Amino acid sequence: MVLTWNRPENDGGSEIDGYIVEKRDKDGVRWTKCNKRRLNDIRFRCTGLTEGHSYEFRVCAENSAGVGASSEPTGYIKACDPLYPPGPPYNPRVTDQSTTTVSISWTKPISDGGAAVKGYVVERKEVAEEEWTTCTPPTGVEETHFTVKTLKENGEYNFRICAINTEGVGEPADVPGTVVTSERFEAPEIELDSDLRKMVSVRACATLRLFVPFRGRPEPVVKWSKMEGPLTERAHIEVTSTYTVLVIHTVDRLDTGKYTLTLENVSGIKSVFVNVTVLDSPSAPEHIEVKDITRDSVSLSWDPPLIDGGAKITHYIVEKREAQRRAFTSISDNCGRNRMKIDNLIEGGLYYFRVLAVNELGVGLPAETPEPIKVSQAPLPPGQVTVVDVTRDSVSLAWEKPDDDGGSRIKCYIVEMQTKSDGKWTLCSEIRGLRSTIDGLLTGEEYSFRISAVNETGKSEPKLLGEAVVVNDDTMEPIIDLICNSFSVKAGDDLKIDVPFRSRPEPEVSWNKDGVELKETARVSFLTSNNSSKITIRNTTREESGNYEITLTNTVGRKSAIIAVTILDKPGPPGAIKVDEVYADYISLSWDSPLYDGGCPISNYVVEKRDTIITTWKTVSATVARTSIKVPRLTQGTEYQFRITAENRYGMSHAVESASVVAQYPFETPGPPTTLRVAQATKSFMLVTWNEPASDGGSPIIGYHLEMKDYSSIRWTKTNRGRLIAETEFKVNGVEESLQYEFRVSAENIAGIGPYSKATEPIAARDPCDPPANLTVTDITRTSISLTWSKPENDGGAKVTGYIVERRELPDGCWLKCNFTNLQETCYDIEGLTEDIQYDFRVIAKNSAGVLSEPSQCTGAITVKDNVVLPCIVLDNKYKKLVIVKAGDVLRIDADVSGCPRPVISWSKDGQSIETKARIEITSTHTTTTLLVRDTIRRDSGQYTVTVQNIAGTRSLSVNCKVLDRPGPSSGPLDITGLTAEKCTLTWRPPQENGGAEILRYIVEKCETSRVTWTSVYDDVKATTCKVTSLRKGNEYIFRVKAVNEYGEGEALESEPTKATDPFTVPAAPTDVEITSISSETMTICWKRPESDGGSSISGYVIEKREKSGLRWVQVNTKPVNDLRVKASNLCEGCEYEYRVYAENVAGLSPPSIPCKLTKAEDPQFLPSAPAKPKVIDSTKTSDWCQ
Predict the structure, then answer these.
(1) Distance CA 841, CA 1073 (A)
(2) Which of 159, 197, 195, 162 is nearest to 175 (CA)?
């Protein structure tokens, strides 16, 4: 800003030396100096102002007497650039017209005059007139397009547009040429996108959207059609004046095809087509046919599907379904041809078949046979044809069913005959049965016969009678033509015995087995013709073995034949299992051979065993040839069961099982040892002895097992691990002193370990109690003596609970008890003595087990009389230096004291008296005093003083002690700075207590408040600050710090819960996106900064564009743009584009801006408007500033 002022009316009697200019921000309270040097002029240009802020100014004059009073402030003035009316709008043009309207559009002016454009004014005038008429409201319109209405038809008009800002209306921009208001006719034109000119592919179940812009005057009629047929009901068509959209939701393979768009108006017709492929599984194959049918197979063929789903058919899936079932089963999953032969079908079964085509998108629709297909073919010829009877004019024939009916029921049999003199076959009859009589024959004529079977599929080959038949009467005795008199058949198979014979007239046939007549049943059937008799037994079993007899009887005679039948089957079970020998690790078994060997020799036996507590059988041997076996490797004492199976070439018999058998020796385990006792007990071992058991079980004792247990436990532990005890005594080492133990013992022979003996009484592991030591006289008066002594070195495994003090007068007195109550201390004052008499003293210890020790060594002769000695303290040399103790250890200070009479002992620390507490114990005797501090901590460091005092005087000595411990907590608070969503900085102070050692490092840990576990961040921080990274955005954390010295980790200092969040967010969206320069290939896009940068400076901008007919936004710039404008290139001429802008900071991308208006990429067709009128806004002696 440039400031001017007038000189002061009064210069104070001295010439004005200069001026001082001051300013103050509207948001501030302090005046700041603007000029750094003395100002002599009355005009000043103030710089360094913040744009958008309001300031007030004042001026002070200065002479040789000093600085005068300040002038009145100027009032607040906003720091901003000077404002001008905007320039003319850019590129005005007519976009549409009719008989009464004209539509005009334009672009924002290149210069907005320093203030935002508020609107635009559109004016018109007829060519013949001079005056311009405003078409828009007085305030203008905000859009960059406008339609002028209510014009005269066929009138000629000129138009111009002016921009408006806060400074007023800018210069106008004229629309080139004159505009005649008449209707425009334009043939339909379709702007088909390049993507639609290619094949449009869309996946099944997706949405097909065909967007096609068009133009035409008048508005054309829009029609969509599909070449392959009518449009689906799912098709939705949207039509506007400029575009049409065909939308089909959830497309399928049937929507594939060529879609045609037709536009028609009075100016013409225009059509385009779009090829659409729906990527789906294929449709059903075409023309499925059954080509060939046999008794167990069907041949299918088909044509490829009409719709392949947009992908090549890779293979086909062929499936079948029985008529009585509902589900199809797969026959082939990878059939590469259009035909297939399906084998392994059930003869006579009814089947449906279907085929499905497969492409890379999946399995298509099925094509199914409309009717069930029966799997069958023409039958085989009938079986053997025989002559049943011959008379003078007839022949009776019989035949067997065909071996295969072709999969379809036999409908009838065709009987044909041929005479010897005539070669032509003549139909005799069609009959359903297996027997026929042909009448009306000539006597003595020779005839040939043949039989054919007929089913639903067709007629079989004929079966000829073996020899020609001469028609006449004849008789003969039955003759049996038996080829073999023995038959063998495998169990389960059918037994068929066919016995041919000759007889006339036809005989009566009977069958019996082992003398019992056979009757026809469901399994046994007979088939007798005039020349054979056949017996069939289905599903034979071993009971069918035996001798079969056939008997033939007619009027001439009787004939019989015997046939031996053997059924080949698995053998019967072996005989009962006998246990021959039982031992601890093996059992011998034997058994009898099976009564039925299955018609062939027994090849081997399979022997199995199992433990009776489990159900699983294990094979002992599968190749036993004899009827006995020795089963080895058994577990002693385990109960077993065995089973045996016989095996021949046809299989294995049923198993026979044995009774349960225990694998054990034939003698018993020994009895329990007797007289078990602890012969000797000490604190380190016990000697246990016992006697042999009363019974050795029939086998010599090979050793003993000794077990022990704590009296309070229930678990017995072996003392002789890995070896047997050969003797009847054992020294048990490793006992724990004072614990009570019980013992038990068992004997072992070859049969095993016998029962345990009765346990001993609990015995404590203790040594015998020793006598007290170091009996000393500490004080003597004329009526009393004070004694002290030491505890026994060995208390016998039980705590010493008291002492007994005894005395006697010398020389011949007897020992008398001095204390009549339990004495627990190791000192005692004996009073009531006689002056000048000599006494001898001794002490006896007693432990909690009630054991009395031997008497201690006597004191010797002591004369009772008074004695005064000054107190004295004696400390070990180690206490003269600094005593250092580790935390947790015991601090012990021992001092020897003396004095007569016995002095009073007291302890203090740092001048404060010490009292006995849980951790502090003070023990004093006549000659010693001990201070004991257990579980030392840092606070136990200091100076300890012991003081002794009696009537002769006082004496004190001090000991300095230092406790080495872990450090205390770090000094707080634990400050958290520089917090973001991913990191922060922690700061703390060293601990006030270092534990007697230098702080080596710090451990930093973190914990999410939603969890309970701490995670290490750093474990070797040397400074009292660190940076924590890898935080999770939005999570709440607690941090803690622990100091570490050479003795361990100190207590932790914790922070307050803190949430990991950034101090900034993504910026707001940019505003006022507009296009300022347009050509056929480029556009210049401008915008304004976002209202908020989110707390972090804007690092760049990302610009996206979208075609009018497109759906997808495409990024314009590959790198972030730092300026507020960018040039978009490589545009398609004639296409309309819209743009949007993102701002970016360290937090990420902002929301997108509001897109700008659609703008067509085309070169301008008129000259640019004139620049705005220049204005002088400031000047100096040598230059001017213009804008």
Answers:
(1) 117
(2) 159
Contact call for residues 1094 and 1045 (beta carbons, < 8 A): no
Strand, coil or helix: what is 505?
coil
SS3 832: coil
Q: Which two tokens stand for residue 1142?
A: 């993102």
Closest CA to 427 of 1109, 435, 438: 438
**What distance in Å separates the CA atoms of residue 212 and residue 222, rounded to the nearest whole number?**
11
Residues with Cβ within 8 Å of residue 878, at least 6 apart in sequence: none
Q: Which residue has the tokens 């007030």?
A: 56
Cα 521 to Cα 603: distance, rounded to the nearest angstrom: 36
Cis amide bond preceding 86, omega within 30:
no
What is the C-alpha to C-alpha distance for residues 301 and 537, in angstroms, rounded to an integer? 45
Distance CA 876, CA 1088 (A): 90
CA distance 930 to 801: 21
Chain Cα centroid distance, residue 82: 67
With CA atoms as reference, report the closest residue to 1088 among 1130, 1125, 1053, 1118: 1125
Q: Cα(1046)–Cα(1055) distance, rounded to whole angstroms?
A: 25
Mention every residue, 6+ apart, whose C-beta is less than 8 A from residue 1173.
none
Contact between 823 and 802 (Cβ < 8 Å): yes
Taking phi first (over 0 means left), then psi (-120 to 50 degrees means alpha), and beta for anything else, what does residue 104 get?
A: beta
Cβ atoms within 10 Å of 42's Cβ, excluding its own = 14
Dihedrals phi, psi of 412, to nearest 5 degrees: -170, 175
* Rounded CA separation 763/749 (Å): 29
Q: What percent of the chain has pLDDT over 90?
A: 21
Rounded Cα distance between 420 and 437, Å, is 19
Burial of residue 925 (CB within 10 Å: 0-12, 13-18, 19+) is buried
At residue 177, does pLDDT exceed 60? yes
Least confident of 196-210, 702-716, 1158-1172: 1158-1172
Say if CB 892 and CB 922 are below 8 A apart: no
CA 749/CA 700 separation, integer angstroms = 6
CA distance 602 to 20: 135
Burial of 66 (0-12, 13-18, 19+ CB in 10 A): exposed
Residue 1184 exposure: Cα atoms within 13 Å on the Cβ side: 6
Contact of 25 with 63, CB cutoff 8 Å: no
Whether 156 and 205 have beta carbons less than 8 Å apart is answered as: no
Report which secondary-structure segment, H or E, holds 816: strand 816-817
- CA-to-CA distance for 896 and 874, rounded, in angstroms? 5
Tokens read off for 672: 């329990």
CB-CB contact of 930 with 923 (8 Å)? yes
- Residue 647 has what pLDDT? 92
272 touches 194 (CB < 8 A):
no
In angstroms, the CA 893 to CA 271 distance is 115
Helix (H, G, I), strand (E, B) or coil at 254: helix
Mean pLDDT value across residues 392-409: 83
Cα torsion 572, 576, 581, 585 to 10°: value is 60
> Is the separation of the CB atoms in 129 and 1095 below 8 Å?
no
Helix (H) or strand (E) holding 943: strand 942-950
Do the Cβ atoms of 727 and 702 come closer than 8 Å? no
pLDDT at 1176 over 50: no
Q: What is the DSSP-derived secondary structure letter of residue 938?
A: G
CA gap 189, 178 in Å, rounded: 26
The pTM (predicted TM-score) of the whole model is: 0.30
E strands within 1009-1145? 1015-1021, 1025-1028, 1036-1045, 1048-1054, 1058-1059, 1071-1078, 1083-1088, 1100-1107, 1114-1115, 1125-1128, 1136-1145
List, in sequence order, every residue forming a beta bridge with 316; answer none if it has no partner: 335, 357
Give phi and psi for 1001, each to the nearest 5.
-165, 175
Q: Supply 269's token pair.
A: 């017709």
Determine phi and psi for 939, rounding to 5 degrees.
-70, -10
